[in-house]
Structure formats: C-alpha cells, structure tokens
Amino acid sequence: MALKNRSVPREPLPDADVHSEGFRQQRQARRSALVEDYVELIADLIEDGNEARQVDIAARLGVAQPTVAKMLTRLCADGLVSRKPYRGVFLTEAGRKVAEESRIRHQTVEAFLRSLGVSAETARIDAEGIEHHVSAETLEAFRKAMTAPR
Description:
Blueprint: H1 16-47, H2 54-61, H3 65-77, E1 81-83, E2 89-91, H4 93-115, H5 120-130, H6 136-147
C-alpha cells in the first residue's frame, strides 16, 4: 500500500529532541533486554531448586554454550552474577534486583494481555518482548486498567 493511500491519518512529527528520545529509549531497552533475560532465567533456575548451569541456560534460551559463556563473562564484569569452578552461576544482590524488576514487568505485561483475552501461551511469549520496552508509566496504566471496575 502506498503511503498516500493511508486509511489512518498520520500525526505530525514531534519536535526532534522529543522524537529522538523515543529512539534512544528503544536502543537502551534493546541493550538491556538480553541482560534482563539472562538474570531472570538464572533466578528462575535457582528458585526451581536447581543450579543455574551454563548448559541449562543455553538450552532454555536456545543458544550455543559459547554464547552463554560470553554473556556470563559480561554479567560477571557487570557485577550481576558470580561463578564458581565446577558449580553453577549465582546472582549477586544487584543481579537479584534486576531479575526481580524484570520478573515484575513480565508478570504485569502478561497479566494485562491475558485480561484482554490473549491466550496464556501467546501472552507469555509476547510479554517476553514487551517487558523490556514498556515504561513505568505504561506499566502503571496496565495495572490500573486491570483493577478498574468493568
């Protein structure tokens, strides 16, 4: 469809500074999404009663073990995880905080999607991407919408 045949009118472009802020926030969200996914998964594996081992992380994320090893090195350098020889991966206090914040965002987005009638499986999958890009203001609006009388 050609742009001139739009059925929905386009809003005028915002001021350049305002416009660029949206793109800056999205770039930041993409950078932090992978870190959040790793620490949230590590927390889940530990809470599930298992050690968070490199092989398990790779299997659950669907990536190769060398990819996980590289990210774990980064997470160690960032002070989010610690590793012990012949043992699993452990979250530091900072890592636990990131994991908890990510989990809360995920649960809020997933619950909101479910409240709209999205299936459990689709809501879980979609929330995995949305959780990293949603603002605190939008999360609060989701919470209010879910608790508002109908």
